[in-house]
Amino acid sequence: MSKRKRWISLLLATSLVMTLTGCGGEKKEEKSDEIITLRILENDTAKQEGYLDELLSSFNEAYKDKGIQAVDANMEEYSDLATNGPYGYGPDVIYQANDKLMTYAEDKHILPLTIEDFDCYEYIPEEAWDAFRIQIDGETYCCGIPVNIQEPMLFYREDRMPENWETEWDDDQNGVADFFENWNDLYAYSKYLRDTDTSPNKDSQYGFMSSFNDLYLNGQFLFSYGAYVFAENEDGTLDAQDIGMSAGNAAAGLCGLRQMAALMNEGCIDDTIKMNRYEKIANGTYFCTVSTPDTYSLFIEKLVLAYEGEGMNEAEAAEKATENLKMIELPSLMPADGDLSKDSAEMSEDDWVSTIVMGGVNGYGISSYTEHREACMEFVNFATSYEMIQKRMDMLGIAPTRSDVAEASGGVTDMIFQSLENGNIYLMPSIKAVDQIWVPTHTLLGDIAKDPFREAVGETPKYSSGQDIQTALEKVDKDIYDAIYTLK
Amino acid sequence: MEHPKKRPHLSFPVKASMCIMGTGQLLQKQWVKGLLYLACFAAYIIYLAVMGVEDMIGFFTLGTVKGDEWLGIEGDDSIMMLLRGLLAFVITIFFIGIHKSNINDVRESDRKIKAGVALPGFKRACEIFFDKKFYIAALAVPVLGVMIFNILPIVFMILIAFTNYGGDIVPPELVDWIGFDNFKKILALSEIKDTFFKILGWNIAWAVISTLVNYFGGLGLALLLNKKCVRKKAFWRAFPILAYAVPGFITLLGFKFMFSYGGPINYYITLHGGSAIGFLDIDAGMKAKIIGVLVNAWISVPTSMLLATGILSNINHDLYDAASIDGASKWKQFIKITLPFVVFSTTPTLITSFVNNFNNFGIFYFLRGGLYNKGYFLASDTDLLINWLYNLSIDNNYYGIGAAISLIIFLITSTFSMITYVRSNAYKKEDTYR
Known about the structure:
- The complex is a heterodimer of chains A (488) and B (434).
- Chain A is α/β, with parallel strands linked by helices and 488 residues long.
- Chain A has helices spanning 2-23, 44-48, 51-62, 81-84, 98-106, 126-130, 165-168, 183-195, 215-218, 220-223, 250-261, 272-282, 296-309, 314-324, 373-383, 386-396, 403-409, 411-421, 438-456, 466-485; strands at 36-41, 68-72, 93-97, 133-136, 139-142, 145-150, 153-157, 206-209, 228-232, 238-244, 286-291, 325-329, 333-335, 352-354, 357-366, 399-400, 425-427.
- Chain A folds into two domains: 36-143 and 359-422, 3-Layer(aba) Sandwich (D-Maltodextrin-Binding Protein, domain 2); 153-356 and 432-485, Periplasmic binding protein-like II (D-Maltodextrin-Binding Protein, domain 2, 3-Layer(aba) Sandwich), CATH 3.40.190.10.
- Chain A has 20 helices and 17 strands.
- In chain A, strands 1, 2, 3, 6, 15, 16 and 17 form a seven-stranded mixed sheet that branches.
- In chain A, a hairpin with a 5-residue loop joins strand 9 (228-232) and strand 10 (238-244).
- In chain A, helix 11 (250-261) crosses helix 20 and helix 12 packs across helix 13.
- Chain B is mostly helical and 434 residues long.
- Chain B has two domains: 19-179, no CATH class; 183-428, MetI-like (MetI-like fold), CATH 1.10.3720.
- Chain B has helices spanning 12-19, 23-27, 31-61, 78-114, 122-132, 134-160, 181-188, 190-226, 233-245, 248-259, 264-271, 286-312, 317-325, 330-358, 362-368, 385-395, 399-423, 425-428.
- In chain B, helix 6 crosses helix 17 (399-423), helix 7 (181-188) packs across helix 17 (399-423) and helix 8 (190-226) packs antiparallel against helix 14 (330-358).
- At the A-B interface, helix 1, helix 12, helix 19 and helix 20 of A face helix 3 and helix 11 of B.
């Protein structure tokens, strides 16, 4: 009996200890001199092109004595900090476009920063900082450090320029072809190419080509004409209740898009051109197309293959591709009345409006859930230093927000920088509601682009007048509003 | 004269076990069993004290302190509180179950003692339990698994339908209980109501048509390949299986490309002088729906074919011989012999197929995602309820509304499945073909 009691006592004691242990609070890890590890979430291109490795190894080398090391967060590019962060799974430093990053800022998932403390502060224009500013409870905070500007660019092959462009397509004799300066001449040259296409199915040469269902790539047909996404309040904050896709003369801009679509094929209605543009530029079917700077290497890749197909060796092909593939800004002038078919020679200065493209600023934010705020700031400071931004530009072909790097590199990079400063880039709004703008506009732009093809098969066009387009744009405004507010 | 029922007399050990689990067993000198019950009781009390009560209260309040990472205020996580509260109730229900078994056990032992039967030791009691109630022992783990991985998420989803979770109300914002407001929105807000009923109508039509097309497509193919005149049957059967073997979404993306303006179908149309067709455009309407049905058939017919092939091989061929002698035509034989036999065997599969088609997310997500039609709220005319649910809850963060819709989908599909199954011969005449 006493033996049994001993066993019972032992069992009781064990169960009590186990229960109490199980119910105990979480053990706090003791801080020691351990190395601080920062998890960095960069975009996929930076990973693929090896820039992230370069950045991490440079940082780790520079900070090895300070006990800080940075590693790839090894997460999906768009993994949600709001979902992962509070439970300790998010990255410490995150690189994203301003709209995405500021969505996090609205709910305080990323930290406000004292931007004057960063070395890059004085080199970055206010417009770029504004993309990361947010007002909360009457106070303005900046929650990101701008790195590069994104905007749609025009890609073409230098060796596919018309031989007589200097005499026939450069009226002002400024050494730049007119079709790269204004949209009416781009339309005229595209029409010329279509009219002179002698292939049996008339599908061997096109001028300007774009998947028109993409707002980001085709925002110039709206924003150049006074459209806006969300109105700005007097204090600089955005009013998501005031949606302005139909504002100004936006309908005229989309009349121009409709005209341009008539010179393309049906691929402009869906993503077809977006998928085949690299190949079609390389084989000369498309004269020029629109894309973002980070796709430069894809165009080069296809062009190299095309040259190799013509019999060149790899080195020759690569050299010729780099020499011939040009990436420039979209033509800077659009017709004020949206009529692309007008002869540019007969138009006065008042007949034009400046092209305003949709763009974004990518930058770094620091997670509110990081345990190493100071170390994160050190990392961001390092990653936005002159050397690293220069390296990023060289490896990824980005347009930096740092004026010193942009100036030093000159060319297109500086041009993009100037466009941002001059207000020719309409930055994606930095509020959560921006998520709702894409599908309604995507649907409408694709539908308008289809209109010329409806006529071609004898169907009734849906957007035969500016008023039809205006009504459709107002419907888009309402759809966006409903998407934001109906269920609130 | 009837005497009122006498309440059974409760002995002291039973009363003791009712108050404190295990004490009755200890009084009956069932030491191990008593201590185990007592340990469970102690664990539950400690759990309640440490977190259980707090979790239960949290379930009702869903938090009172809003977090602010910038100010270092940790705040309450409403969704986690909902989950923990739910878990607390599950643990309590589990505890009540153990408590009941504890009372039953002590009562049974009490009865045996009064009858002069010796109580078995713990080891022997375990042996008796595993022997006589083996089904409980065998099913305990799977049932626990189903509870954790199936029932709990479903209950969680149901509860979310009664909150305002979603839109701007995501942590750190505090979520609240809003009763039936989400359901009212679906049925009252004009944009949502119209969209809901339009999609529901199309969804039911889609589920019925695609189930029938897939079913009879597979059956037809199986009958065709069963014909004596078809040579190298294995070779021909391999083709549909190849279509089945390719991952569904790859097939769907392939079809999307094929029907796009730059795809091969339009290429050949334009090559021969025709105009490209917008098979999947925003105004494609019926074209897109028909393509959806056919693409779904491409993916699903092989499964039906394999199933039908197996079932057809079990039909007694004497039935056909007898029917032929009676002068029945081939069509009559199909209607009177083949079809009843196959339908009888496949009714549960047919129901599964209907439910799968009703909730077929992939087809229109991959073929035609990212479009909103005029007259639809965050949806297009080919979207099924499950696609709309995705648009609302994943693309637009309206989790509460999404949960309410998924609850409605659940009610529709479960009601249909139950009614169909209970009314089917497969259920009513289970022994017919045995």
